[in-house]
Write a structure and sequence with these properties.
Structural class of chain B: alpha/beta
Order of helices and strands of chain A: EEHEEE
Mean pLDDT of chain B: 93
Strand content of chain A: 25-35%
CATH superfamily of chain B: Aldolase class I
Helix content of chain A: under 10%
Low-confidence stretches of chain A: 68-73
Strand order of the largest sheet of chain A: 2-1-5-3-4
Mean pLDDT of chain A: 87
CATH architecture of chain B: Alpha-Beta Barrel
Number of domains of chain B: 1
Shape of chain B: globular
Radius of gyration of chain B: 20 Å
Number of helices of chain B: 8
CATH architecture of chain A: Roll
Radius of gyration of chain A: 13 Å
CATH topology of chain B: TIM Barrel
Strand content of chain B: 15-25%
Order of helices and strands of chain B: EEEHEEHEHEHEHEHEHH
Shape of chain A: globular
Largest interface: A-B, 35 and 47 residues
Low-confidence stretches of chain B: none
Oligomer: heterodimer
CATH class of chain B: Alpha Beta
Distance between the termini of chain B: 37 Å
CATH superfamily of chain A: Beta-grasp domain
CATH topology of chain A: Ubiquitin-like (UB roll)
CATH class of chain A: Alpha Beta
Number of helices of chain A: 1
Number of domains of chain A: 1
Structural class of chain A: mainly beta
Largest sheet of chain A: 5 strands, mixed
Number of strands of chain B: 10
Distance between the termini of chain A: 26 Å
Chain lengths: 73, 263
């Protein structure tokens, strides 16, 4: 099935959980946060959250900053 | 009645957190991580801002947070958000990732000036406070907006002193003074505009409780040295404010006695 992750289309196997997606993307689970279809999913709920076709996933972490960037992300 | 102010006894409070340093610094624009770390150490700051961004999927990203002193209080920001909705979602993500209720709320209204959209900022602040966040809002130096932000439950307000990253210095001393005088109990953090140490001292002399800066340190030729200068300027300005400056007068007033002058 297709997912949209951080604005990119990705093909993944059906019935993938969020936790499995994090592992598959080789992401360090500490200090990242995930938004699924505009709602934050708590870390404790990653294993039980099963992804569906065309889900919109945003995975964020922290970068240096102190001031707004001058263009929209 | 002389009271020597000790930096240690003059604490700075935000919500239920207490700090010794009144300097809050950013983590952006540094040339290298080593330079950033040296500047952070020299600044004596206890709180640093960090930004929330998408994880790059094409490579295993190293954790930026590993380059920060673990003792530092992290202050995630909503930099780059242009609507209340975007800022609220970013704040929720930051809280989930860092397990902190602190959020520096920024909702920008215009790309050229990066001036805040006060209306959207207030709307986001109201929602986030209700959700249990400790909201520190960046806003235009407007007394009425400051009152509204405090009324919805922000424990501090962060007026700008000049456009972000401009280094123009304190362009609005009258507005900052009015805000201080009219809101004597409020925690006011000057955010944005400082260019060099004297600017930081002026902000503190005007009665700011703290100053947040990034570019003035990161873009200095020697970031660590400027960080140290800022630390000293913040302390000097704070003590000068607490000491209470003399009144200005137009004409000279002799310091030496006028009687017994040898003729």
């Amino acid at each position: 099935m297709n997912l949209r992750i951080n604005g990119e289309d990705r093909e993944v196997v059906d019935n993938l959980s969020l936790k499995e997606l994090v592992t598959q993307l080789d992401l360090t689970p500490e200090r990242i946060a995930i938004q699924l279809n505009q709602n934050v999913v708590r870390r404790a709920d990653w294993p039980s959250t099963v992804l569906k076709e065309n889900d919109q996933v945003e995975v964020v972490h922290f970068v240096g900053g102190g001031e707004p960037v001058s263009s929209r992300q | 009645m002389s009271t020597v102010v000790s930096a240690k006894s003059d604490r700075f409070e935000v919500g239920d957190r207490t700090f010794t340093s009144r300097l809050i610094i950013g983590t952006g624009k540094y040339r290298t991580y080593d330079e950033m770390k040296a500047a952070h150490r020299a600044s004596g700051a206890e709180m640093v801002t960090v930004a929330v961004r998408r994880v790059p999927l094409d490579r295993s990203a190293e954790s930026f947070l590993d380059h920060l002193d673990p003792a530092m209080q992290l202050l995630p920001n909503t930099a780059g958000c242009y609507t209340a909705e975007e800022a609220i979602r970013t704040a929720r993500l930051a809280r989930e990732a860092l397990q902190t209720d602190l959020i520096k709320l920024e909702v920008i209204g215009d790309q050229t000036t990066l001036f805040p959209d006060n209306e959207q900022t207030l709307e986001a602040a109201r929602v986030l406070v209700q959700e249990g966040f400790t909201v520190l809002p960046y806003f235009t130096d407007d007394l009425i907006m400051a009152k509204k932000l405090l009324d919805v439950g922000c424990p501090a307000v962060m007026p700008l002193a000049a456009p972000i990253g401009s280094g123009l210095g304190i362009q609005n001393p009258a507005n900052l003074r009015i805000m201080r005088e009219q809101l004597p109990e409020a925690t006011i953090i000057v955010d944005a505009g400082v260019g060099t140490a004297s600017d930081a001292a002026i902000a503190m002399e005007l009665g700011a409780d703290a100053v947040l800066m990034n570019t003035a340190i990161a873009e200095a030729q020697d970031a660590a040295k400027m960080a140290q200068a800022m630390k000293l300027a913040i302390e000097a300005g704070r003590f000068a404010y607490l000491a209470g400056r003399m009144s200005k007068r137009l004409y000279a007033s002799a310091s030496s006695p006028l009687t017994g002058v040898v003729r």
